[in-house]
Design brief:
The chain is mainly alpha-helical. 70% of the residues lie in helices and 0% in strands. The chain has one domain (2-322): ABC transporter involved in vitamin B12 uptake, BtuC. It contains eleven helices and no strands.
Length: 327
């Protein structure tokens, strides 16, 4: 029953934040939101349906994707500090996005752009997985080193690109929903949906997988296959997200810890609530970046860091025992 209430509360909060995202902004609506349903002409209707609605949908999709990706990443690497940025997925997706845009192969928001981000995200995650030592902090150190290298390469590509406008697109470092439109949402949504489906499939095996490779094999689970499918799921969740809005910090790290605190460590149960809380968090963060310093807008990743870092420290100090990794 407790879990049902949590799902209901998260869903209601999601609806409220989504509606607020449509109502609040630099341009003050002169028409009640309910009267704009079905209309597509006029300043208010254009503001809501062409600008704010795609942005709110993007926050919902990307927030859910980051939340689920964090839960899967921490489970598959058996590490409470694993998250998309630390295992190379974010930097790989960033490099894949910039590579096709800076060379003129594809435009921002195109299907080719998203596919390149997914491919590079998967390759970088597999690279770190195979290079990292299996014990201690070797995994995290390897992830940080590879991520930094890929980020540096992406920065060099932006700096030397002769394609007009590429150097002006700097939002990948801190994340932004400002460039989202309906067409981009239509492009990234099917890929993220595939990621959700794969994450649900993998999550059913993660509880047994978490017992260790030997125990998993004994109980009929192939740990190598689980890891491969998990990384593919993560690539489909992170690649489209990063290609559309850039790198957003702490959501993938913080959300699974909150969910684990609320409902326990079962990965199958965590996926749905991680998606909703991730969407809630990103919708809230986007509302803050659009309203606190009006008419200016600060990078979304800065707000998620300001919210996420203190909350994560507090959670780790009060409930540390829940996230200690046991081999």
């Amino acid at each position: 029953m407790k879990r049902s209430y949590l799902y209901l509360f998260s869903f209601v909060l999601l609806v409220i934040l989504f509606i607020l995202s449509l109502q609040i902004g630099v341009i003050h609506l002169q028409t009640p939101l309910i009267k704009l349903i079905g209309k597509n002409s006029g300043v208010d209707a254009t503001t809501v349906w062409q600008i704010r609605f795609p942005r709110a949908m993007g926050a919902l999709l990307v927030g859910a994707a980051l939340g689920v990706a964090g839960a899967i990443a921490q489970g598959i690497f058996r590490n409470p500090l694993a998250e998309p940025a630390l295992i190379g997925l974010t930097s790989g997706a960033t490099l894949g996005t910039i590579a096709v845009i800076s060379t003129g192969v594809a435009e921002f928001g195109s299907r080719t752009n998203v596919e390149s981000a997914i491919l590079f995200a998967a390759l970088s995650a597999f690279l770190i997985y195979f290079l990292a030592p299996q014990k201690g902090f070797g995994f995290l150190i390897t992830g940080i080193a590879i991520s930094a290298t890929l980020t540096a390469i992406a920065g060099v590509m932006i700096s030397i690109s002769s394609k007009p406008g590429v150097q002006a697109i700097s939002f990948w470092n801190f994340g932004s929903l400002a460039l989202l439109n309906s067409q981009i949402i239509k492009v990234i949504a099917p890929f993220i949906e595939v990621g959700f489906i794969l994450a649900l499939f993998v999550s059913r095996k993660l509880d047994i997988y978490s017992l260790g490779d030997n125990s998993a094999r004994f109980m009929g689970i192939n740990p190598k296959a689980v890891r491969v499918w998990a990384i593919i799921a993560l690539a489909f969740l992170i690649g489209p997200s990063v290609s559309a809005v850039g790198a957003i910090a702490f959501v993938g790290l913080l959300v699974p810890h909150i969910v684990r605190l609320l409902i326990g460590p079962s990965h199958r149960k965590m996926v749905g609530l991680s998606a909703m809380i991730g969407a809630d968090l990103l919708l809230l963060a986007d509302l803050l970046v659009r309203t606190i310093f009006q008419p200016h807008e600060i990078p979304l990743g800065l707000i998620t860091s300001l919210i996420g870092a203190p909350v994560l420290i507090l959670l780790l100090r009060t409930k540390n025992a829940m996230w200690v990794s046991h081999d």
